[in-house]
Amino acid sequence: MRILGIDYGDARTGLSVSDPSGFLAGSPSVIHEWNYDKLVDKLVDFIGQNKIEEIVLGWPKNMDGTAGPRAEKCEKLAETLRERTGLPVILWDERRTTVAAHDILHQSGKKMKKHRQTIDAVAASLILQGYLDRRRHEMG
Predict the structure, then answer these.
(1) CA 80 – CA 83 distance, rounded (Å)
(2) Are 55 and 3 spatial neighbours (Cβ–Cβ below 8 Å)?
(3) Sheet bearing 2-7, strands edge to edge
(4) Mean pLDDT (the chain, rounded)
């Protein structure tokens, strides 16, 4: 089962696709798109081309657990993707994933200026891997 992890952003949206067994997050990439409708079209195309069966969308709740404007945008995207693809979309608490992604890039020797180009893809991989780990743990 291929599962897609998404880190939704206004200018860049990070993507990561699991391996067929649903064990590891991989294939990180970024869609550069400001326009919501065009982004949705690109995501739907990507989902079809990659035979995605489930979607995990980062849900950036506030540190106190409340949903702010960014989380509400993600909830809207989740609903749109459910309607357009017929697939389950899981909202995944992504608090601190961007911080963790910056740490990973920094430790790998990437300069801060270069982080912008890859941060969303790394964050999408962390979102997806967190979900896959939880899923595997719950299954057994």
Answers:
(1) 5
(2) yes
(3) 25-32, 12-18, 2-7, 52-59, 89-93
(4) 90
Instruction: List Cα–Cα distances, 88 to 32, 54, 57, in angstroms.
Output: 24, 5, 10
Q: What's this model's pTM, rounded to 2 decimal places? A: 0.88
CA-based nearest residue to 92, from 5, 2, 1: 5
> Can you give the pLDDT at residue 62?
80
Task: Give residue 139's pLDDT.
Answer: 84
Quote the tokens at residue 17.
């696709």
Element containing residue 2 per DSSP (H, E): strand 2-7
Q: How many residues does the chain have?
A: 140
Q: How far apart are CA 107 and CA 51, in angstroms?
A: 33
Check: CB of residue 123 under 8 Å from CB of residue 7: yes
